[in-house]
Amino acid sequence: xxxxxxxxxxxxxxxxxxxDRLAMQVLYGRHHVRVFRxxxxxxxxxxxxxxxxxxxxxxxxxxxxxxxxxxxxxTWLLAITRFKALSALRRKKxxxxxxxxxxxxxxxxxxxxxxxxxxxxxxxxxxCLGRLSAEHREIVDLVYYHEKSVEEVAGIIGIPENTVKxxxxxxxxxxxxxxxxxxxxxxxx
Length: 189
Prior knowledge:
The protein has two domains: about 10-95, RNA polymerase sigma factor, region 2, helix turn helix motif (Rna Polymerase Sigma Factor, Chain: A); about 115-180, Arc Repressor Mutant, subunit A (Orthogonal Bundle), CATH 1.10.10.10. Helices cover about 75% and strands about 0% of the residues. The chain has helices spanning about 10-15, 20-45, 45-65, 75-95, 100-105, 110-130, 135-145, 150-155, 160-180. The longest helix has 23 residues, at about 20-45.
């Protein structure tokens, strides 16, 4: 049985699902102009619309077995086209940050001197944290790095909330002393 122009679109989709390339050619011949025109109206760019045709019919080839026939094949094709066109427009919009807009963005990165100071401070902080007791290090890690509340820390460690608060108080105090000894002033109130 050959795929003739008289074959219904639904029949063509069923045959495409079985890998029938001739059925794919007939479906493409029937609908590619409609898909192109619809895509072109959405994206307003002929090259992008041409690319959409390829993407749409590649999806048809891959997804034909999933077509449930709840709508006409032409409706399904246009739905795929619309989705692909909107995705293309989103990608284009994301890529359109032009030089003028990029030039207007303030560069808030640190200068080399500040970067070195921060690196040195970070290293000193890691060394000082390493000198805290295991209990204090654990509390600081959970509260400051994992952003857990006192209540959450108490549940994680299995100690009362007041013990968490006490350990945190002494951990901060000890850390401040260690940082001051390393020549770094305390960075919190």
